[in-house]
């Protein structure tokens, strides 16, 4: 099978336990859980049996060990994860709003993730990559942007493919160079995985048909519009394919989109049709929200197949 590689932040997530809870006063929290959008993505890919690895950095601390233990257990290649003594592993504190939204307090640029660089181990991992996946959250500093762009160019130069999930976080949008980096990566992108209004992030058009036409004209081969519980829609030169989502009891939405992306990309790398890939991706996203913790709902292929059978899909 093809090798899938990503790069970016690895962190722990610590969550408020009550909807409407604030961080302006003491309150109950749960965690730490292994997290970071690229880490969640690659953990799900590994659980599906996709050969995969990540270029990242953690501190020489319990938070870093927690993440590395988890990724290794999911058969993710962590040989390119640098361990930095004296610098903490990144963290995110999350609280939940009554309307279903979330707010984050991040420590990423000043954590070990801020020291992500292309090392010899990273180059060795990248040399085996058939596909490189970019998470927008990973573009939080000029140094990490440089790593991501180098990875994109190296994989494309060998005839490989690239996917991009904008995964925008309001708390990170002011990162220097992020917008320009997203534009540069989109120009080299094969699979684009926007959620909601992200479909229109790079287009003049503000309607579905017009936006998709612009993206395909820019060279994107697969546009996958994620719609949460409503499923997803795939667009390519052959047309439009919509696959509905699955009704499940939501416990924690964190990581659902990352798991969806891993499911879709992994299946496409295995030669699945868009409809087949969407079905697996929707199952990954649905299963992800049934557990508390960003990676706790990542599923094996056997679990996905069992879920699909139960759903009659």
TrEMBL record:
Its EC number is 2.7.1.4. It holds the Pfam family PfkB. Residues 36-297 form the Carbohydrate kinase PfkB domain. The keyword NAD does not apply. InterPro entries: Carboh/pur_kinase_PfkB_CS, PfkB_Carbo_kinase, PfkB_dom, Ribokinase-like. The keyword Nucleotide-binding applies. It comes from the Bacteria. GO terms for molecular function: ATP binding; fructokinase activity. It is an enzyme of class 2 (transferase). Keywords: ATP-binding, Kinase, Nucleotide-binding, Transferase. CDD domains: KdgK. PANTHER family: HEXOKINASE FAMILY MEMBER, PSEUDOURIDINE KINASE-RELATED. Belongs to the carbohydrate kinase PfkB family. This is Fructokinase. It comes from uncultured Rubellimicrobium sp.
């Amino acid at each position: 099978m093809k090798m899938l590689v990503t790069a970016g932040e690895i962190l722990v997530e610590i969550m408020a336990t009550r909807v409407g809870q604030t961080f302006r006063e003491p309150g109950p929290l749960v965690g730490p859980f292994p997290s970071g959008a690229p880490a969640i993505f690659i953990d799900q890919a590994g659980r599906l049996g996709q050969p995969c690895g990540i270029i990242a950095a953690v501190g020489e601390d319990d938070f870093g060990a927690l993440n590395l233990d988890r990724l290794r257990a999911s058969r993710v290649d962590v040989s390119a994860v640098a361990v930095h003594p004296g610098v903490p592993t990144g963290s995110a504190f999350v609280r939940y709003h009554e309307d279903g939204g979330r707010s984050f307090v991040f420590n990423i640029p000043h954590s070990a993730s801020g020291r992500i660089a292309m090392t010899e181990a990273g180059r060795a991992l990248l040399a085996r990559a058939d596909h490189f996946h970019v998470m927008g959250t990973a573009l939080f500093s000029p140094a990490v942007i440089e790593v991501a762009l180098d990875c994109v160019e190296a994989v494309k130069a060998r005839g490989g493919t690239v996917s991009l999930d904008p995964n925008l976080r309001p708390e990170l949008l002011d990162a220097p160079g992020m917008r320009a980096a997203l534009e540069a990566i989109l120009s080299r992108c094969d699979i684009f995985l926007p959620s909601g209004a992200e479909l229109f992030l790079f287009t003049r058009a503000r309607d579905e048909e017009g936006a998709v036409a612009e993206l395909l004209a820019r060279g994107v081969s697969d546009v996958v519009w994620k719609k949460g519980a409503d499923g997803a829609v795939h667009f390519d030169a052959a047309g439009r394919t919509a696959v509905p989502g699955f009704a499940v009891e939501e416990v924690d939405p964190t990581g659902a989109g990352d798991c969806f992306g891993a499911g879709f990309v992994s299946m496409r790398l295995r030669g699945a049709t868009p409809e087949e890939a969407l079905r697996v991706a929707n199952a990954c996203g649905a299963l992800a929200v049934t557990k508390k913790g960003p990676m706790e709902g990542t599923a094996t292929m056997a679990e996905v197949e069992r879920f699909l059978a139960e759903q009659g899909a």
